[in-house]
Amino acid sequence: MLKTDTENKETAEETVECDCDCSDVAPKKEKSLKSKLLWSLVFLAIAVLTVWAVTSQEGFSFSGFILFLRNLHPVWVVAAGLAMLGFITFEALALSTLIRSFGYRAPLHKSFIYSSSDIYFSAITPSATGGQPASAYFMIKDGIPGAVTTVVLIVNLIMYTFAILIIGIFCIILEPSVFFGFNVVGKVLIIVGCVCLASLALFFILILFKSSILKRVGFWGINLLNKLHIVRKPYKLKKKLCCAIKSYDGYVSQLKGKQKSIIIALIFNILQRASVICVTLFVFLAAGGEKELWSLVIVSQCMVILGTNVLPIPGAMGISDYMLVMAFSAIGFSELAAVNLNLISRGISFYICVIICGLSLIARVISYAVINKKAEKRKNRRQK
């Protein structure tokens, strides 16, 4: 059967778009210092509102919370703190592994800064958009080429997504009944989170192995949106999609022969996500929780991660607390005990973690200033 004029036009258009010059596609602008400071203030505001909302539960008192803290088993509290540090360290190890696979040095103390910057700025910006640019800044500052930095961060993001899916699938198989302990809102968030993560994983797989399929699916979606009058300029969207696929294909070509490093990075990402779950588990045990319920606690925290990972709220603050209190209540804790457990586990795994990352970044920036000052003094001495 002969093609219609419309079909011929679309085919020609697609061919032109995929062969076009992508240099005029404007890159995303790096966020200014003012923007980052603004999001830091937003983060503080949301954090205060979250703590206020959680502590406004009937029967809660700060004196009772202090008494709850004093009764915690110190050994398990220390274990929770170490697990929180593991969250930062395992990402540092994943980044270090990927960087070294390209032949560049990445000692742990520097990789710790890359990880800290990712965690800190991901926590204070919507949908964690500030994490990777901040991490890239420090990597490039340390002499790692921009192209290598981009590939490393993209691969680590892919491994991060797969790590959450792997742990999520494992937990759902381990205790599927936990899902039904959440209310309707919690269930919807978990389902939406799973669908979004699965879609991201499929996107990454297509990028890695079948970018041509991704292009066809993308073009089909853009054409459909155009017919529904949702998209007015499909040509521009198709051009951006082609340029993005072309760019990713270039990154993928650089990963040949690095399968071992990628697998190791995946393992470190799985350990990183497991660290967050362990914080909640250790706090549960510190509070005298029954060891027979450990699997329910692990699965509950995993469900919270699945339900909040794709939310645009900085650090998923508020929603994570809401779901974690709900999870503890579903396990059998009273609402007051669930609130106390949430405050401690989130306090360690999120707020203290963000503070440590922020302090690490401040120390690193100061060290840069000191190094530059010393270098300038040496230069002046040589000139004299």
What do you see in this structure?
This protein has 384 residues and is an all-alpha fold. The protein has one domain. The chain is built from 14 helices and no strands. It has helices spanning 5-19, 33-55, 62-70, 74-101, 108-124, 131-141, 146-174, 184-209, 211-227, 234-253, 259-286, 294-308, 319-331, 335-383.
Overall geometric form: globular
Q: Which stretches are low in confidence, meaning pLDDT under 50 for 5 or more residues running?
A: 1-17, 25-31
Count of runs of 4 or more consecutive helical residues:
14
Q: Indicate the radius of gyration in whole angstroms.
A: 24 Å
Largest sheet: none
Give the helix/strand class: mainly alpha
Number of strands: 0
Average residue pLDDT: 80
Gist?
This protein has about 375 residues and is mainly alpha-helical. About 80% of the residues lie in helices and about 0% in strands.
Key terms:
384 residues, 0% strand, mainly alpha, disordered N terminus
Topology, please?
Layout: H1 5-19, H2 33-55, H3 62-70, H4 74-101, H5 108-124, H6 131-141, H7 146-174, H8 184-209, H9 211-227, H10 234-253, H11 259-286, H12 294-308, H13 319-331, H14 335-383
